Amino acid sequence: MMNKQPKIKRKEIALVGNPNSGKTTIFNALTGLRHKTANYPGVTVEKKEGILALPLSREQVTVIDLPGAYSLTPTSTDEEIVHEVLLGRVVGTPPPDLVVIIVDASNLERNLFFAGQVIETSTRAIMVLNMWDLALKNGLDIDLQQLSRRYGIPVVPAIGGQKGGMERLKVAIEKQLSLEPAKAKVSPENCHLPLPLEVKDMRGRIERFIKFMFKHNPHAAQGEALRLIGDSYFRSPLFREMGEQLKQVVIAVRKRLEHVRIDWSSVEAENRYEFIKAIYDQAVPTSEVKRVKTSDRIDRILTHPFWGLIFFGLMMAAIFQAIFSWANYPMEMISTCITKMSEWFGQILPDGQLKSLAIDGIMAGVGGIVIFLPQILFLFFFIALFEDSGYMARAAFLLDRIMRSVGLSGKSFIPLLSSFACAVPGIMATRTVEDKNDRLATILVVPLMSCSARLPVYTLMIAAFIPPAKILGIFDLKGVTLFSLYVLSVVAGLIAAWIFRKTILRKSLTPFILELPPYRIPQWRTVLHLMWDRAKVFLSRAGTIIFAFSIILWFLISYPRNPAVEQRFDSARVAASQTLQGDELAHRLSYIDAEQKGEEIRISFAGWIGRSIEPVIKPLGFTWEIGIGLVASFVARELMVSTLAILNHVEDKSGGESRELVQALQEQVSISSGKRVYTPLVAVSLMVFFLFACQCISTLAIVKRETNGWRWPLFMVAYMTTLAWVASFLVYQGGKILGFE
Ligand SMILES: Nc1nc2c(ncn2[C@@H]2O[C@H](COP(=O)(O)OP(=O)(O)OP(=O)(O)O)[C@@H](O)[C@H]2O)c(=O)[nH]1
Ligand SMILES: [Mg+2]
To answer: Which PANTHER family match (predicted)?
Structure first.
């Protein structure tokens, strides 16, 4: 039998604190990892782990980064994670050995509420006064020793963004971990909340009742008992698990307190704030707080109900303009490189199927997508500026009224906005939304927001079919079209949310509270990291899924072959050369070449697939050639562009140098009807289809995980695909009636 060695368990340190206090920044500084940070509350929504080697003993410990929380009474999914981890209620994991409380020093008084709750429930704790730079700037003179004495734990100042204070923090962590639990808090009595006798009594009654739920952390029961008293909406997971019995006990306690005229709903908050005030006045005695006025002054305009919205709209329009015009130069450079590489392959590879696969399949399919990297990077550059400057939270505040009118809250805005990058983090971000139905409605409309994978399809169609006109003399029609697509996706999302809230997901609204962080100059490191990460995701998709499917697509487009077709066209060539001469002959021959390629694609596997779905997509203005791309795009949206590139290459007889894709699309003629495959109207219809269709497997997987089942993801596919079809139908048929082509 194998001798089972007991695995040595690493000690665990959990980082907790209010949202946006810099937990992830410090986590990254301690572990050398690079998890996402940004200047708005609610960035981290799940538990993340990393490893830290202690400075003296070199012992390795696990560091856990957690979502932010305002209180240990959880109100949303992300706060619940904090509750469960800190109180040691996650199955199989005891509570952390040490809790590092990250406090925003520039906002000390408010942060101490949660900090106090955590200190009471943990055996070993350290308080980090992060944002020390801001505190100094605001003129706060915090007496660290006083604070440390009052709470009975070490207090360390830090400037997370600049890795300031990290060595000191590591030393403090090592020291705390080496102490016996009983000695870790110098004088635990100091931090005990003074409460009226009656309340203490009642707290004890509940504590005894729930104690068995906290086998790992008996410390935690007392604080939890107090919080249960004030938990008006019965949100604590304990109510779910212990059911009616616990509820009855708590209700009885509340009655008893009412009897002695104690307001049970605010008893903890009142006493805690009073307690904090006493400590605060002692630790920050003479400071004359110079509030940073700049943030307020900027906010007078940026959060103004009218001017704020105007500014928001203008800025968005400018961003799309920039994506279009600035990204052009690097895109042309990449395009030239790819052409050069194709030519090089053309020279070194012998003629034949392998050459065709390399050039017409892989280079065309993957290269066709890689060209769009600069646009993706520009989009993420602006998103990073948005997130790190503090504007994100303002935009949420600004649009709260609009969100509210469709039955969502301002909290849903951040998930929706993140989804312009990608729906997956957008869906994760809905964990901060408190109300269950509210959250579900948000999840359902998140994939309608136009994610970055749709961008290549839009910009290709726009480049080919939208004329380069100017609007109002400054805005380019191409940029405006792109902007309109994004506006359309938002409007559709809001309408869909409104419908869901009126029908399947009815519920009252919860109030919207979102802390506005101070404005900050975005850190170039954060911005570059985000862009770099996205570039990696984008390129690795191109190198894996797009690569593989380009090969498959090339195969489907090139096979099966029919010798009879070849013979037919060969005899047409012979006939032509007997009757025609010079230019006329050359013209005729190239026409026959094109016809032959078209026919070969038509009878290929891909052609068969395209033709079999043609009846469904014909009313939208799409021929079977587009149908091939549509089918491929359900695997990955970008494959639409790859398919077009491969089709264009395979169709092009010259092998190596193909026409520019844009030009090829403009000229492509359907061999079934002899008409152009793409017209401006078809292009718009196609973009609208892409806007609404649910073509992302990762999105469905994450929705399944977050909603615990297949019901909602299936519903999502159904409603989005229907919506896409109907919208394209209206665009195309309506456009035709109006006389467009
Ligand atoms: N000025 C200043 N900014 C900081 C400091 N530490 C972090 N920041 C910035 O504060 C913002 C929030 O940092 P995060 O690390 O994302 O905060 P968090 O606590 O993990 O936030 P959530 O995950 O949303 O709860 C980011 O913009 C950081 O760059 C600091 O010491 N000084
Ligand atoms: Mg975080």
So the answer is: FE(2+) TRANSPORTER FEOB, FERROUS IRON TRANSPORT PROTEIN B
